[in-house]
Write a structure and sequence with these properties.
Mean pLDDT: 77
Length: 109
């Protein structure tokens, strides 16, 4: 509907109001070229929505996202193992059971 209303508006602006009557590339009124260009983009949009939209819908997008997340998790795990191998944490002393007692006598804190 918007396409048809816009095309009619372009024709009215050119034919009835005389806007751009002198501009005629290839001896064709400018509104014809504008409508043809708009038609081309409209057809590309229709193809994208109705044909390609069925192939790359939300389910496909979610599947691809899950695949990429799994791949990233594998990579993170591999990097984590490499870091643990190259920079191991020091062994913890198991004889120490509690932190040292605070020997401060200042009770005003």
């Amino acid at each position: 509907m918007v396409f048809l209303a816009g095309a009619i508006l372009l024709i009215v602006v050119n034919q009835l109001l005389g806007y751009g009557k002198e501009f005629q590339p290839l001896n064709t009124p400018w509104f014809v070229w504008a409508i043809l260009l708009w038609t081309f983009f409209f057809l590309i949009h229709l193809i994208n929505v109705f044909l390609l939209g069925s192939f790359m819908n939300k389910a496909w997008e979610q599947k691809q996202l899950d695949r990429l997340v799994a791949k990233q998790k594998k990579r993170i795990e591999k990097l984590h193992q490499q870091v643990e191998k190259e920079y191991p944490l020091p062994a913890q002393n198991s004889t120490r059971t509690s932190p040292p007692a605070n020997t401060s006598t200042d009770s005003s804190l």
